Amino acid sequence: MGIEDRLIEDVGLRRGVSNLTPEHIEKTVNAVISGETGARLKAYAETCMRCGLCAEACHFSQSHPSDPSYTPAGKVHQTMGVLLKTGGKVSPDFIYGMAQLAYTECNLCRRCVHYCPIGVDTGYIMSTVRRICHRLGVTPQYIQDTAHSHSATFNQMWVKDDEWTDSLMWQEDEAREEFPGLRIPLDKEGADIYYSVIAPEPKFRTQLIYQAAAIMHAAGVDWTMPSEPGWDNSDMCMFTGDFEMMARLKRKHFESAQKLKVKRIVMGECGHAFRSVYDMGNRALGWKMHPVPVVHAVEFYWQLIQEGKIKLAKKYPGPVTIQDPCNIVRGRGLENKLREVTSFLIDGDIIEMHPNKEHNFCCAAGGGVINTGPPFKNVRVEGNAIKAKQLAATAEKGVKTVITPCHNCHGGLHDIIHHHKLGMELKFLSDIIYECMVKPEA
C-alpha cells in the first residue's frame, strides 16, 4: 500500500492542487532543492540503505506493522525520493498525496535518527517536503488557518492585543483573591525572567497563567510578561514550511524580550514552541546564538527546587508515569531533570513507559500534526497504537496520572486515552506544583 490508498479529502489540499500545473511544480521543486538544500539532502538521499531499522523507531510504522509505506524510509521514498528521481516532474495529484503524508503521517519527532546506522535525518527531509508544499500553496486547511493567524496577529489563536492584556489582568484579579500581594508584572524593564506562553493559554487554558503567577509569587521571582505582540512563543509556520514567517515570529519574540532588557526567557510547558525559539529561531534569522538565553519550564522548575524556592505542603499521590516530549528530551536533554522534578513532587513511584527518555515514542500530536485538524484525527490516534500499549502497561501497574510537560502531548495523549478507554488523567508540572506547594499567607 501507499499514500494513494488512504487519501483523505481536505479543502486546503484540494484547493491548493487545483491551482497547480506540472510546469509550476517542477520549477518550485527545483528552486527549493537547488536554492535551499545542499550536501545534507544529497548525502541522505544517496546513503540510505533501505535497511529497515528505522521501522522500529516510528510510532506510525509500529502501529501499522504490516505496511512498509509507514516506515520512515518508505515515507521518504514516496515523497522526496520521487521528486529527486523525476527532477520534480510530477502531477498535482502526486503533490496532494505527498502533502497529506508529510503533514499528517510524520511528526518530525526524529526518533528514527537514533535508529539509523548512518544518521539519516528523516525529520529534515520531511520538513523540506513541507517547505515545497508551502511554496506550492498546498497545506491542510486547519494548520494553514493557524499560520494565517500568526501572520495577522503574531499569535496562533487570533487573540487581539486588548484580549491578551485583559486575560492577564483577569488572572491577576483571580489570583489576588488567593494571594493578595500577587502581581503579573507587565513590561517591567530589567526583570530576571521574561515569561512567555503559547496562545492556547489565554484562549482556553488561562488557569496555567494563574498557576505560573502563583509559582513565581511563592518563589519570589523577579519576572515580567510583555503587553505587546511577541508574547506567543508557538510557531505553526515552522511546521507548514513558511520559514519566512517563522523568522518574523522569532524576531518578534526575541526583540520583545530585548526591549524589556530581561536576563532570560522562561518558556511555559510546550515542546514545539521551545524548539522554535531555542533551536530554530536564531538560525532562521542568521544569528549565531540567541540574543537572550532561553530556558524551558522543566529546567526552570528544577532550578527553583535546587535553590529551595519551591516548598511543598504535601506531595501528589503516585504512582505516576512520564511522557517525554520529543523537543525537550531528544531536542534538549531534559529527561533527567524532568524526573528529578517529578520525584520531588510525587509521593510514590514513577512507573516508566518502555522505552523511555530519549527513546520514548512521540505523542503523535507534535510536528503540527494535531493542527491539521479533525479530518486527520483518526490518522494520528490509530497511528499511535504503540503509545496506547505503553500507557496501558503502566495503568496495569496502578498508574492513573501521566506527567506531561507539553501542550501538544496533552492533546495527543488525551485523544489516545479517550479512544482506548484507558481512564488516565494528564497533568502539567505546574498543575502539581500549584496544588502541592506552600501557599504564602495573606
How does this model look, in words?
- There is one protein chain.
- With 442 residues, the chain is mainly alpha-helical.
- It has helices spanning 11-18, 22-36, 39-47, 59-63, 72-78, 80-86, 92-104, 111-115, 122-136, 141-153, 161-178, 200-204, 206-219, 237-240, 243-259, 271-284, 297-306, 326-329, 335-345, 377-382, 385-395, 407-419, 429-436, and strands at 193-196, 223-224, 264-267, 294-296, 316-317, 320-322, 346-347, 401-403, 425-427.
- The radius of gyration is 22 Å and the shape is globular.
In short:
The protein has 442 residues and is mainly alpha-helical. The chain has 23 helices and nine strands.
Strands, helices and their partners?
Layout: H1 11-18, H2 22-36, H3 39-47, H4 59-63, H5 72-78, H6 80-86, H7 92-104, H8 111-115, H9 122-136, H10 141-153, H11 161-178, E1 193-196, H12 200-204, H13 206-219, E2 223-224, H14 237-240, H15 243-259, E3 264-267, H16 271-284, E4 294-296, H17 297-306, E5 316-317, E6 320-322, H18 326-329, H19 335-345, E7 346-347, H20 377-382, H21 385-395, E8 401-403, H22 407-419, E9 425-427, H23 429-436
Parallel strand pairs: 1-2, 1-3, 3-4, 5-7, 6-8, 8-9
Helix pairs in contact: 1-7, 2-9, 7-9, 11-13, 13-23, 15-16, 17-19
